[in-house]
Each structure stands twice: as C-alpha cells, then as structure tokens.
Amino acid sequence: MTDAREVPLVTGPRRMALLSFDDAAELPESAGYEDVPTGYVLVVLWHEGRVLMVYERERACWELPGGGIEPQESPRAAAVRELREETGQWVDEAELRFVGHTRTAIGEARTVLGGAVFTAELRRPRPFTANDEVSAMHWRSGSEPLPGAGLVQTVDEYIVELCREKPAH
C-alpha cells in the first residue's frame, strides 16, 4: 500500500495525485484497501473506440464520469448511478467490468481516498442533457483536444490508458 508522501504515478490539476493503481488481478473488487475505504468510483465508458469524458462544472475540468459512493451502496451500483446522473447513459451492473482500485491524494491536505474503476462498452449512447454537475460530455479519441476551454484531469487520462491496456475480451 502507498503512503501519501510517496512519489505519485501521475499528478493532475486541482491538486490531485494518483498514488497507486492495483488491478483486479492484484486486488479483487471485493477486497479494497485495508487502511483506506473505497469512497468513489470512476467509469471508463467506451463507444466505437472512444472514451466518454465529462466537463465538471465546479472543477472546470474534463474528467471521467464518477463520484462518491452513498452509504449502503456498492461501488458497482454507485458506478451505474453516477454514470446515469452525470451523463444520462445507462449500463447494467452486469455490463461493468471491474478494472482495479486506486489510491488518490486530493487537495492541499493530501487527503487519501480509495476508488474503484469500472469499464464498459456502450452500444447505443443516449442524448446528453446538461445538469447541475456536468455541462458537457464528449466521446474522445486518443488524446484529441477536448472542446471549449478547461483543464483535462491528467490522472483520469492515465487511468484511461491503463484500461486501454487491459482489453475486455
């Protein structure tokens, strides 16, 4: 397990640092970290070779869809809920493939949070409607520039590449 003072795998805007990534073969979905609870989820959603990125209003940053896990909610259920709330896209829990666990340091205090990363392939995207949290979404190919202004969360880009290296087949 990684200490928050160790060198991160990658850093990003808004004082975010990815401290570790343990893939599903190393740390199963049901395990998680012993010292840091799994408090958030990320969804790497694919459609025709492109990954879904959302523009998060408050952070003014392009990122992966995801968010906090509610009390009594499983990470898998949180991934489905967050994806639907942020983007209007629907996937069934069974369609999600668990990719791995993350440890992320956030903010000035470098608070360490545990996360669960899921991926899925979407056959038919639904239309997007802006909401209080997300003002835009974009199906991104590779590292193409994203529309409009705003930062891109490089921590999430790093996670996308880790998922790209682990095909769902």
UniProtKB/TrEMBL annotation:
Q: Which organism is it from?
A: Streptomyces daqingensis
Keyword list (alphabetical) reads: Hydrolase
Protein name, per record: Nudix hydrolase domain-containing protein
Which InterPro entries does the record associate with it?
Nudix_hydrolase, NUDIX_hydrolase-like_dom_sf, NUDIX_hydrolase_CS, NUDIX_hydrolase_dom
PROSITE patterns given in the database record? NUDIX, NUDIX_BOX
Q: Does the keyword Transferase apply?
A: no
Identify the Pfam families for this entry. NUDIX
**Annotated family:** Belongs to the Nudix hydrolase family.
Name its co-factor(s): Mg(2+)
The segment(s) forming the Nudix hydrolase domain are: 32-165
Record's keyword annotation contains Transport: no
